[in-house]
Design goal:
Blueprint: H1 8-30, H2 56-67, E1 70-75, E2 78-83, H3 86-94, H4 97-100, H5 107-111, H6 125-137, H7 140-143, H8 147-163, H9 168-185, H10 195-214, H11 227-254, H12 261-267, H13 272-286, H14 291-309, H15 311-325, H16 340-352, E3 362-363, E4 368-370, E5 373-375, E6 380-383, H17 432-449, E7 450-453, E8 470-471, E9 477-478, E10 484-487, H18 490-497
Parallel strand pairs: 2-6
Antiparallel strand pairs: 1-2, 3-6, 4-5, 7-10, 8-9
Helix pairs in contact: 6-13, 8-9, 8-17, 9-13, 9-14, 10-11, 11-13, 12-13, 14-17, 16-17
């Protein structure tokens, strides 16, 4: 308790004073160098009233035409730098990774004890150790062993689509949870009311609620406490990372443990401290809306939306599948080299509707100068989606067009810019190889078994679908929509009906 109380005006005065002093200090450090250009802000509060909250990447793309491929905003003393070109991103986030691999300070996450979430962890030894654990388990050679599991979970997904097609969005979320929990712990989730999955979802809901208001606001602002919510978040986080890990340890003792990242890591574990690091790193994969989780689930939702909007893409893909499989079997990973158009669809899905159009912000660890601009320590960096929607590189960028990724001979061609989907520099998503494998097997399997189209109402009229109806500012996902999902023919129905989840 303070021996005196502050009135509302007193608090405002204190805030304005701190911001003013901070601005004076920054001006001295700049040594007459300008900040990156951007919209003119107001005294003290800066661009607080300009900062876009809904689909900010669209506003940034508009501003880039005026201010260039590096621009900045200031919100209550916090600088936000928006990078709009491959050159600026490569120069700063890749080539100067030591300086630009930090994360912004998130007061609520610190209060809730969520420093174990690798996606949000500040640069330092804890992040480096956790990242090594995840990188080892998700390296390309290691992920090959999980392909049979991904195929089996996809087969279970097909059966759910056959039984309850109207719940396809729920089935997508279940599929992603099933793959992640099996990958990390060798655990098969229940179709409904799974303890581990429900805990992760509850944790995610708190994270989603709290991360937005504190993303750019300083900790000293009034009302940034959320003490009770922080305690709840801490308890949920502890359960989310400990319970699945205990499951694996018990399975090892019982001789029932399945191949998983946890099993591999525990074999080399020599101390309780190391075990905690492993548990936290694996917990980051299935909680907190990890990039791997978000990218796959949202890309698959966009996949169904795309099939409704672009029937010609579906027809060509199914023609390619029929030429390889002859309607006699479902696709496998061994078929991928003979399915270039399917591969191109997967690439275009990642580019067309980016899951995180602004990425996860980086932060600078020290003052820096770039292209004659002063960048202060603690500046936040948002790599915008403009890279993958640049009309000079991707003509008619809002159109879904898999041919962008096909060479003249019909084979898939590499596009180094596409890796922007997974982040940059030392913070690039370690699960990108799992995302790639999951997208391929799901996209190919769904197209082989089903035809997707517009749903119809009770009177037989087609229900319209808005291809631009996306929601979210950090994670962009389609607004729930309806579609028709039916087996392509009796042979396809028989193939799906005969599947078992462990096949």
């Amino acid at each position: 308790m303070f021996p005196f109380a502050f009135s509302g005006l007193d608090l405002v005065a204190i805030i304005l004073t701190v911001l003013f002093v901070q601005s004076i200090r920054n001006r001295r450090k700049r040594k007459n160098l300008p900040y990156p250009p951007g919209p003119r802000g107001l005294p003290i509060i800066g661009n607080l009233l300009d900062a876009p909250t809904e689909q900010p990447w669209l506003t940034y793309a508009k501003w880039a035409k005026e201010y260039g491929d590096i621009m900045s905003l200031r919100v209550l003393g916090q600088m936000i730098v928006v990078l709009q070109s491959p050159r600026t991103i490569r120069d700063l986030l890749d080539n100067r990774g030591t300086t630009y691999s930090d994360r912004p300070v998130l007061p609520f996450c610190e209060k809730a004890g969520w420093d174990w979430l690798l996606t949000l962890t500040r640069a330092g030894e804890q992040w480096r150790i956790g990242r090594r654990v995840v990188d080892r388990g998700l390296r390309p050679a290691a992920t090959i062993q999980f392909q049979p599991m991904q195929r089996a979970k996809t087969h279970g997904f097909l059966k759910l689509l056959l039984e309850r097609p109207d719940q396809f969005l729920e089935h997508i979320e279940h599929l992603q949870g099933a793959i992640v929990m099996s990958l990390a712990y060798g655990y098969d989730i229940k179709e409904r009311k799974d303890l581990f999955l429900d805990t992760a979802r509850e944790f995610d809901s708190i994270l989603k609620t709290t991360i937005l208001p504190v993303w750019s606001l300083p900790e000293w602002l009034p009302g940034m406490g959320f003490k009770q919510l922080a305690r709840t978040g801490h308890e949920l986080g502890e359960r989310a990372i400990k319970r699945p890990f205990v499951f694996v340890k018990e399975a090892i003792e019982n001789g029932t443990a399945r191949p998983s990242m946890a099993l591999e890591d525990l074999r080399d574990c020599t101390s309780e401290t190391q075990e905690r690091v492993i548990a936290a790193a694996l917990g980051s994969i299935h909680t907190g809306k990890s990039p791997n989780h978000m990218c796959t689930a949202t890309a698959l939702s966009s996949f169904f939306l795309m099939l409704v909007l672009y029937p010609s893409v579906q027809e060509r893909a199914q023609s390619e599948l029929d030429s390889v499989l002859h309607g006699e079997t479902l696709p496998d990973y061994s078929d991928r080299p003979r399915l270039p158009y399917i591969d191109a669809i997967c690439k275009e899905l990642l580019r067309w509707r980016l899951v995180g159009p602004l990425g996860v912000p980086h932060a600078s660890t020290e003052d820096d100068v770039y292209d004659g601009y002063f960048i202060p320590k603690g500046a936040q960096f948002s790599p915008a989606r403009a890279i993958l929607h640049d009309p000079t590189m991707y003509p008619d960028p809002e159109k879904f067009n898999p041919e962008r990724f096909l060479a003249a001979d019909g084979q898939v061609k590499d596009d180094p810019l596409l890796s922007a989907v997974f982040g940059f520099g030392r913070r690039i998503c370690p699960g990108r190889h799992i995302v790639d494998a999951t997208l391929y097997i799901v996209v190919a399997s769904v197209l082989a078994a089903f035809t997707i189209g517009k749903a119809k109402d009770a009177e037989g009229n087609e229900i319209p679908v808005d291809g631009d109806a996306y929601e979210g500012s950090i994670v962009s996902q389609p607004v729930p929509f309806k579609c028709s999902i039916v087996p392509r023919n009796q042979a396809a129905r028989a193939l799906v009906s005969a599947l078992t989840p462990l096949e």
